[in-house]
Amino acid sequence: MAPTKGAAKPPSSTKGNSKNNKVLGSKVSKKNVKRPPPKEVKSKARTEKSQLKKSKKREYTDAELDLPKLNMITPVGVVNPKGKKKGKVFVDDPEAMMTIFAMVNAEKEGQIESKIMKARQLEEIREARRKEAEARQTERKSKLENVKDSIRQTKKGKNGAPQGKKSEPDSSKSKSSGKRKSVAFA
Amino acid sequence: MRPLTEEETQTLFRKLAEYVGSSLKLLLGDGADRYVFRLSHNRVYYVRLSLANFATSIPRDQLLSLGICMGKFTKTGKFRLHITALPILAEHARVKIWIRPNGVMPFLYGSNISNAHVARLPENVAEYQGVVVCTQDDVPLGFGITARSTAEARRLDPTGIVCFRQSDCGEYLRDEDTLFASG
């Protein structure tokens, strides 16, 4: 339905012929000008190489993305100072070596000294204990000896007492006669 | 090949200071042609500076060894002294112990030193102190760590261990394959 309507009403008829003759004239002159033949624009196939290439997407920098600070590889606190030497710092000059050596040596000497001191103290304590133990042992021995002696004496006493009892009268007799004693024990 | 960093130097000196006293200063020397420590393939070499400078012309992977190998850095960052460092240690040793002829072979085969094998033990030696082990003729055989202090060692029975072996000359044969292999 719509195309039939369009065909019945040409666009020029709506505006009227009397309105603009000049315009019509100009249209006529344009028709006379030679135009270059219209070029055919071929629509490119989707599979064509240029079409297949992805258009470069814009890359955003970190600042633009507004990422949270902790979401980065380097933590917030770690900032590499600029203008500083990268990599290892070597110690090659003799003075630096000497200072390191002096530090290490002092540390080592101190350690050894303290070890020796500690060993000496322990040794003294051990020695004192040993002496104490020895003294205790000699004391115990002497006590034992004393007890032994006392027992011996008592035994002698017991043995001697009956003899004594027996001898007492003898002795009393001997006392009376002094020569007899020497005779009896010889 | 490169010089040592500060941390590496400290680790090396700390280890050397166990065996060598303050005479380690003499080791470094002074003047134009002093001695330096250089690191190559985790091994530390004690080398004259002029020689180290010459060695820079040799590619790193082709440089097998130079100077005296002191030892190597382990992967955990500790330093392990090699038997090749013995001449230097023996020269500047802090403490030496002398062993009897009957103790030489057991030591060279890698065993610890028992009290029966000790000929002379100096006074005032602390426990776990680095010592250089020598024969009675003062020939250095290796180095170790004391297991007892002098006073305790005197009381020890003959089979008791006085010194733990760290390295001995027998390693030249036993560890021949790995001692000089770098990389």
Number of domains of chain B: 2
Please bin the fraction of helical residues of chain A: 55-70%
Taking the alpha carbons of the first and last residues of chain B, their distance comes to 12 Å
Distance between the termini of chain A: 180 Å
Q: Order of strands across the widest beta sheet of chain B?
A: 7-11-10-9-6-8
Radius of gyration of chain B: 17 Å
Order of helices and strands of chain A: HHHHHHH
CATH topology of the largest domain in chain B: Nuclear Transport Factor 2, Chain: A
Oligomer: heterodimer
Kindly report the average pLDDT value of chain A: 73
What is the CATH architecture annotation of the largest domain in chain B? Roll
Topology pattern of chain B, helix = H, strand = E:
EHHEEHEEHEHEEEEHEHH
Specify the structural class of chain A: mainly alpha
The 3D shape of chain B can be described as elongated
Shape of chain A: rod-shaped
Biggest β-sheet strands, sense, barrel of chain A: none
InterPro entries (chain B): NIP7_N (IPR040598), Nip7_N_euk (IPR055359), PUA (IPR002478), PUA-like_sf (IPR015947), PUA_sf (IPR036974), Ribosomal_synth_fac_NIP7 (IPR016686), UPF0113_PUA (IPR005155)
Family (chain B): Belongs to the NIP7 family.
Pfam families (chain B): pre-PUA_NIP7, UPF0113
Protein name (chain B): 60S ribosome subunit biogenesis protein NIP7
Keywords for this structure?
heterodimer; A: 186 residues; mainly alpha; 7 helices; 66% helix; rod-shaped; B: 183 residues; alpha+beta; Nuclear Transport Factor 2, Chain: A; Archaeosine Trna-guanine Transglycosylase, Chain: A, domain 4; 2 domains; six-stranded mixed beta sheet; five-stranded antiparallel beta sheet; 11 strands; 30% helix; elongated; 60S ribosome subunit biogenesis protein NIP7 (chain B)
